[in-house]
Fold:
Amino acid sequence: MDDGHGQNGIGCNDTMEKVMTKHGNSSSKADEAAALQRRIQREVDQLDAQRQSGGKQSGEGAVQAGTRRQPEPPFPEQHLQKPGIESELDPAPQFLAPDYKGSGKLEGRAALITGGDSGIGRAVAVLYAREGADVAIVYLNEHGDADETRRCVEKEGRRCLLLPGDVRDVEFCKAAVQQTIDAFGKLDILVNNAAFQEHVSGLEELSEEHFDLTMRTNIYGYFHMVKAALPHLQAGSAIINTGSETGIFGNETLLDYSATKGAIHAFTKSLATNLVSRGIRVNAVAPGPVWTPLNPADQPAQKVAHFGSATDMKRPAQPEEVSPAYVFLASPVCSSYITGIVLPVLGGVTGSA
Structure:
């Protein structure tokens, strides 16, 4: 007899049994998942306990991803007198890039680099010379550092012109470009790299004199040099500006410096659009912390000791780790289809000083 609930009255019981079985299976799998979560939690808790009790942490120490080991924090506590002398920095910055092999990427070209006596500028000058370029160096008054840069450039078999002066002065910038033309017969590459940086704890401490010095060095200096160089640049020439991670992320104690670097990034992109029809490429490199005289001539000695340790690589870059980016952006065989970019070299995803 069919009672309407299934043949022979067994449909309901059969369905219930299937439901119970289904729930039982689901419950069993859920229990297994919970047990797995607890087991993984216990394993992680054990590792945390080991670290808290002095066990070795995975990934401890600075990251070394290059062809030779680079210095890493902690560094000796030091505070340099401005504008900062590279020969006084301990440890000495690594700028020679001994494993970098030149291949004529800039053969026969002439470059002018501001702030070229030390730091990133010096490292760029060396690689430009290794790639076949003559180099003019603009610097303030760090004559000893400039002489060392010239020695290194000449060791690469290229000429080096030293041009001491202040990039805030428009007449000096015009003269520097003209002297470069007189010495080398042309100008193909302009690297704007000179900068002033001095921290303050708050806006109230940032005097108008301080603000004006930063702006006129970091922004007006770039403007003056580009305007002086532009009549001499041809299709295939390159302008490379040094920006900064501070122009991307800001920095709570470098209010004016960060503002200038953000302006440099915008200036780079705008100028690239303005000059693209003339075949002149304009790009920028935005480094994170780099071991140069700039920060030890700014930050307190205790802070310098741990400079760069907050990056993903837990150390600052050495100048020789940044300079190849300038070769890439200067060379028409490498980057002829690249203009208007800001290339971050941050030691990680975000970077931090």
In short: Confidence is low (pLDDT under 50) at residues 1-10, 55-59.
